[in-house]
Amino acid sequence: MDNKVILNDQEQARRDKLEKYRELGVDPFGKAYKVTHHVSDIRKLCAKKSSKALDRMNLIVSVAGRIMAIRRMGKASFVNLQDKTGNIQAYIGIDVVGKKSYDVFRLADLGDIVGLKGRVMMTRTGELTIRVEKYTHLTKCLHPLPEKFHGLTDVEERSRRRYLDLIVNDESRKVAFTRPRIVREIQKFLDENDFTEVETSILNPILGGASARPFITHHNTLDKDFYLRIATELNLKRLIVGGMERVYEIGRLFRNEGMDASHNPEFTSIEIYQAYSDLKGIGALTEKMIRRVAKNVTGSAIVNYQGKEIDFKSPFRWISMNDLIKEKTGIDFSKIESFEEAKTLADKYEIHLDKFKNTVGYVMNEFFEELCQDDLIQPTFVYSYPIEVSPLTKKGKDPRFTERFELFVNGRELANAYSELNDPIDQRQRFINQLKAKELGDDEASEMDVDFVESLEYGMAPTGGVGMGIDRFVMLLTDQPQIREVILFPTMRDR
Hints:
- This protein is of the alpha+beta class.
- The mean pLDDT is 94.
- The chain is built from 16 helices and 18 strands.
- A hairpin with a 2-residue loop joins strand 16 and strand 17.
């Protein structure tokens, strides 16, 4: 195999400079540097100050970052330096830094990482600027950066080379720093409400907790297959049985399914369980949490998403799945008793049914997904799901339906919640029904979890539980159309 690196002229020119740095006694890949201020610190300290006030202030700073622009003027130059908080202009003059340092600076290229120590001043044009007194080369960049406006714009390439995306795209950096703020706000809210954050296992011997196709891996020592978890639900419920009462977990889930604007095979979810609560209680908690996080992160509980105003401030709408279908089609599924009648309606509306979807409840759910959910732009709790699609949920007053809601925003599911099924006899039968669906070809059906049923036999308090997609929530609060924009390293197809 030929491992020779093929370089263009610019890349070769940058590599040729490495020896010149060494001749000047400078390591081209540098050493540690003492940073005293970030760009945002400087801008806060100097906000609304005049040129004379800055001179009196005599603010000396040491900043480090990447050179994003250079304007050379012989024995003096201006550079634009970018750190994690922003950009600032710097003035470098040979008369201040000295000939040796200026010779080192002459080797600088866009993308190089440098340290600048100097006094903050205002130029005649009103630009906040560091008058550099000491220039320190830190790391040579061996590749030219993409042009600011015509460079790295392809979504696929930006996702593959996220490091480069973060260097040149301000919006990507903003999203990357906003996402952990959203997670922290969720944690703060739940901690204040007496919830305990926990961690549960990613490798699971049994498929359960959701309806999804799994990734399968193998443990050599045990000579046994394991699933990468598709949900955290069953382990968190075991903790409720154990008496922890209020628990939540933020963690990665893995589903061996398609990729699109709102799906990635590896994604982040939060699941929250509260003993002595129910569907209404967990819905109220979810609504309050979303409203507060949106307000604290964006400044308002009303956010703009892709040109639409999403109102998290007003009370969220509650409506049953049956009522939504009735609004759209006039069909009342609570009065349909035979699968044959339901299938006739499905054929009329050209709704495809897999062979295992052979009950009224399955058909009803397909009607909702095909005809209704795309219209749910404002936050809407859709409740009372058919029992066939809710194997872990308490039955409602009508045993065909369950105490479950899904929260929809902008036509997409954001959260899924239950009054949790805590009847071990009913739960065992639901698992048996799932096994029958699996035999008929449902790859997403759950397996029998004997240990979980046994845990319920010890008694689980009436409990409300909710799972919410962190990635989709981040998309909403950062106005991003694609899930890959809010995951630093999404799963990508080969080039």
